[in-house]
Amino acid sequence: MKIYLFVDGDRVTGYGDRPSYTPHEIEIEVAENHEVLRNSRIFRYVDGELIRDDEHQLLEVKNRKIHELSAMCNKAILGYFNVDLDIGTYSFSFDKEAQDNFTNTMALMNNDVTEEVRWTAHKDGEVHRVTLDKNTFMTVAKAGFNHKCHQISRFRDELQPLVEQANTIEDIKAVQW
């Protein structure tokens, strides 16, 4: 079967079944079941031959997994965290808007502009508005900060090193958020 490889240096970046007349295109014959047809990016083209590059494939899988874990980390950060308060245990949002609200409210409280704030919290699947004095607000804000730090640490200190040290694709796939 005739295909047209697209190469960058010696790295195969793709292929087509018709010439595209682009620079760095190479016409070759391959078997109809050749692996290059399923995953061309794991090959190099050197001295007229296709060479499978498992190390490059492993690196690509690692990079995809790290991006996947980073997205999961961001999703977890933007979720909810729980805080035990005198009035009960509540969940608080830590999405972008909530983070901005925490920052702005903390600045106002630290500058003695306000001593308390009404805040949206969640308990037993219901939305509640709770009044937080300065000390209680700081407890909630610190819990939010710790929530964010925990997610980042889980990603950067635990999971990313496991991916980077993995020697097989199976080991990489086994790393889950």
UniProtKB/TrEMBL annotation:
Report the residue ranges that make up the DUF4376 domain in this protein: 60-171
An example of a Pfam family matching this protein is: DUF4376
The record's annotation in InterPro entries points to: DUF4376
Q: What is this protein called?
A: DUF4376 domain-containing protein
Q: Origin organism of this chain?
A: Sediminibacillus halophilus
Lineage here is: Bacteria, Bacillati, Bacillota, Bacilli, Bacillales
